[in-house]
Amino acid sequence: MKLLSLIGARPQIIKEAILNKEFEKKGIKEILVHSGQHYDFNMSDVFFKVLNIRKADYNLGVGSATHAQMTAKTMIEFEKVVLKEHPDIILVYGDTNTTLAGAIVGAKLKIPVAHVEAGIRQEPKDMPEEINRVLTDRISKYLFCPSELAVNNLKKEGITEGVYFTGDIMYDLFLKMKPYFKEDIIDELNLEENKYIVTTIHRDFNTDSKEKLESILKELDKITKEIKVVFPIHPRTKKRIGEFNFNEYTKNILLIEPLDYLSMMGLVQKSHLVITDSGGLQKEAYFAGKKAIVVMPDTGWRELTQASWNVLSEPNEIKNKFHHIMSNEISSNVENIYGDGKAGEKVVTYLESNIVK
């Protein structure tokens, strides 16, 4: 079997690297194509060492542009590669413009498309990521779902063939990288285990709204009266705090520079809980056994809120949600929501059994 993987963002690079090891074990030839949609990888050397991340066989050089331009250019350039390589299957990841472009090219050329991280659904329906993932699921032949909820989401939409619950490849990553998590930052900040919370706020709907950002900072300031708040601050958030003259609300918050994955996870796994609007961190907190308050109107990881592990919060409700989440017993139905850490192995096994004759 000859497989062509299309990636275009940091999380996709990591997922591909994990799958690549499984392809090698099975003797499956993989051609790696990078769209160039995101080109600042900024990954720790440990990632390259542990995952053996490799250079793409093709780079389409798409870069940043409008949604239409990125999608169209990726389709044009990717089609050339597909016609040259004649793959048996095309593999796409997640919900970026690169994902949708690759799926459309494969469908139009009648080459089976496999979608890793299929079945995720989130409001509002007009957000670019939601459009990309829904359309990609519609035209993919194989849909690899990170959770049972994702499988059920597809079933509700009438999609049942070629659907597999594999678990989440990002959980595979968490387990592989856990021995390398860095906890130096805890000593540097003079923190004690389980006596601080970690927060990240960076979404434009939270930071670009003066009212919402003020509410969030006021709520965090209230929480600092009870427990330390460590805030690795995103450049956008830092800029808005200055523009809106909100520095008075951050005097008691421990603001630090953004952290890489290994340091962030080292900080999270020793924390009390997490407050975030990050799609990745709300799930990584679960991997680390920590609950999260998710400052978003909805989440793509609804299985965690449905299990009462994480809770959604409006900006002005954070302190109340903080008390609520800590006063409730952990639900017993929270184990293995995202599989057993062998998602990559399962994806490759399903592909091999369906395509290799």
Care to describe what's here?
The protein folds into two domains: about 1-170 and about 340-355, Glycogen Phosphorylase B (Rossmann fold, 3-Layer(aba) Sandwich), CATH 3.40.50; about 180-325, Glycogen Phosphorylase B (Rossmann fold, 3-Layer(aba) Sandwich). The protein contains 16 helices and 13 strands. The relative contact order is 0.12. The chain is globular. It has helices at about 10-25, 45-50, 65-85, 95-110, 130-140, 150-155, 170-175, 185-190, 205, 210-225, 235-245, 260-270, 280-285, 300-305, 320-325, 345-355, and strands at about 1-5, 30-35, 60, 90-95, 115, 140-145, 165, 195-200, 230, 255, 275, 290-295, 310. The chain is of the alpha/beta class and about 350 residues long. α3 packs across α4.
Q: Kindly state the mean pLDDT as a whole number? A: 92
Number of helices: 16
Amino- and carboxy-terminal Cα gap? 9 Å
Biggest sheet descriptor: 7 strands, parallel
CATH topological fold name of the largest domain: Rossmann fold
The tally of domains stands at 2
Strand line-up in the sheet with most strands = 3-2-1-4-5-6-7
The CATH class assignment of the largest domain is Alpha Beta
Radius of gyration: 21 Å
Tell me how many strands there are. Answer: 13
Provide the low-confidence segments as ranges.
none
How does the helix and strand content classify structurally?
A: alpha/beta
The ordered H/E elements are EHEHEHEHEHEHEHHEHHEHEHEHEHEHH
What shape does the CA trace take?
Answer: globular
Q: What percentage of the residues does DSSP assign to strands (E)?
A: 5-15%
What helical percentage do the residues reach? 40-55%
Corresponding CATH superfamily of the largest domain: Glycogen Phosphorylase B
Please give the CATH architecture of the largest domain: 3-Layer(aba) Sandwich
